[in-house]
Amino acid sequence: MSDPFDGAGEARRGLAERLARVRRGIADAAAAAGRDPDTITTIVVTKFHPASLVRDLVELGVHDVGENRAQEAASKALELNGVSPTLRWHFIGQLQTNKAALVRRFAAAVHSVDRESLVETLSRASAERHDLDCFLQLALSDDPGRGGVTPGRMLPLAEAVLNAPGLRLRGVMAVAPLGEDARAAFAKVREASERLRSLAPDATAISAGMSGDYAEAIAEGATHLRIGTAITGKRPERA
């Protein structure tokens, strides 16, 4: 009779192998850029995967996970409450204002701050909680469906975060547009980061780079990578 746990064990081994492979890739990209890989945070994107996968990641030494659906993320965070004191949840998707309070209950960081109304709501929801790390999402394309603040509105939005109680401005975030050169896109993000630091010198973080372009992001100074399928494998089918 076959062992019913063989499948789970094989899945965990595959997860460990993919994680190790990505960690080697990050180290190689950092070396090529003359950077210390220990200064780069890898956020493992676990959307659509069960809470059990996050638990396995924690056992493999992962401290940062990312989600882009508020209700799903809140459910996982509740289920895994207390699993590790070092586990940090990052909200990386577009955030509706009416879901901001829900996200504030579990998230250590929101990477998609792109409008002042969201800043105000997150600030109100931050009462009696630790400061929430905020990244300004930059618009690198003309597609409004992808979210992001335009270059001309970035500094006013940054000022709003700086003046909002309970929020901490960490830096900028962006997604390279599909079909465009990722290195060139991330160079624009680096330039935006430099402009932001003229207003907020401590806002040095750059959240950029995913499974297919993290090396290019590292070359342009990314401090936070958001990597999903390269580590977690194929996402489960959703209805």
Bin the helical content.
40-55%
Shape designation: globular
Question: Poorly predicted ranges (pLDDT <50, ≥5 residues)?
Answer: 1-5
Determine the number of helices (DSSP H or I, runs of at least 4 residues).
Answer: 9
Count up the domains: 1
N-to-C order of helices and strands? HEHEHEHEHEHEHEHEH
Mean pLDDT, to the nearest integer, reads: 93
- Strand content bin: 15-25%
Q: Which architecture does the CATH hierarchy give at level 2?
A: Alpha-Beta Barrel
State the CATH superfamily name.
Alanine racemase
What fold name goes in the CATH topology slot? Answer: TIM Barrel
Classify the oligomer. single chain
Structural class comes to alpha/beta
Report the C-alpha radius of gyration, rounded: 18 Å
CATH class categorisation: Alpha Beta
Folded structure, characterized:
The protein is 43% helix and 16% strand. By secondary structure, it is of the alpha/beta class. It has a single domain, classed as TIM Barrel (Alpha-Beta Barrel), CATH 3.20.20. It has an 8-stranded parallel beta sheet. Strand 4, helix 5 (116-124) and strand 5 form a beta-alpha-beta unit. The protein is globular, with a radius of gyration of 18 Å. It starts with 5 loop residues before the first helix and ends in a 7-residue tail after the last helix.
Short description:
This protein is an alpha/beta fold and 239 residues long.
What topology does this entry show?
Layout lengths: L5 H27 L8 E5 L5 H9 L4 E4 L2 H10 L8 E4 L8 H7 L2 E5 L2 H9 L7 E6 L13 H12 L4 E7 L8 H18 L5 E3 L6 H6 L4 E4 L1 H4 L7
Parallel strand pairs: 1-2, 1-8, 2-3, 3-4, 4-5, 5-6, 6-7
Helix pairs in contact: 3-4, 6-7
